[in-house]
Design goal:
Helices cover 34% and strands 26% of the residues. It is built from 8 helices and 10 strands. The structure holds adenosine-5'-diphosphate (ADP) (2 copies).
Length: 227
Amino acid sequence: TALIEARDLEVSFGGTPALRGASLTVETGDVVAIMGPSGSGKSTLLHCLGGILVPDAGEVWVDGQRIDSLDEQRRSTLRRDTFGFVFQFGQLVPELTAEENVALPLLLGGRRRAAALAEARPWFARLGLDGLHRRRSGELSGGEAQRVALARGLVTGPRVLFADEPTGALDSLTGEQVMDLLVDAAREQGSTVVLVTHEPRVAAYADRQVIVRDGRTSPLTVERVGS
Ligand code: ADP
Ligand code: ADP
């Protein structure tokens, strides 16, 4: 059975519909790109899948569990233990060092500081960030910061990594480096990936693309072009 199944999701903000019947199935190990014009509902869909937002109607199932009807505390636990997140503008804590940022999800999960930092450290070599672990994250370049954000999203070994325009703030070469690292690292540890992008070059890294238009989804199966 599918790892994620969303059926007929509807979301309105102040009476204005953002999702009007969006459905999506994601198999374990898939890299799925949610594409579509600005304002079409991509982020809203991602937020519903990731347990950040509760839809007004429809159902979200993850690993056989219905998650949209869980209370806020259970959704919070699910997000922490099962999901990882990467956003467009890294959203690192600028006063913390890069390694403290990567360790944050582990600390929030109850890991002790020394153990969390020890688990964070190997990600620096893996993502080409050697020597930057003690740097304040406010002093990193855009591409470095986004790789640190990627490490933070993957450090818990999440079942699903949700990425919302992970390359949106980067130039195209840096963006492709981040996508290469994202896809390789996720596959290596068996994390399924759901990403939102409006860039075809980024979507080309996915096994499958889902198009959102005016709050409705239509799947488009494509060959994987990137590597
Ligand atoms: P996309 O990610 O495709 O750009 P979004 O999902 O961010 O689209 O937004 C879909 C629509 O819902 C847009 O019209 C947007 O302005 C609106 N919207 C999204 N989030 C909110 C919110 N928290 N409050 C009010 N309107 C929102
Ligand atoms: P993205 O680039 O990922 O689509 P947005 O710029 O659409 O992100 O939205 C960033 C944040 O602001 C999201 O949490 C979204 O829910 C919220 N948001 C988007 N549109 C509106 C809106 N019209 N009113 C209030 N909040 C919004």
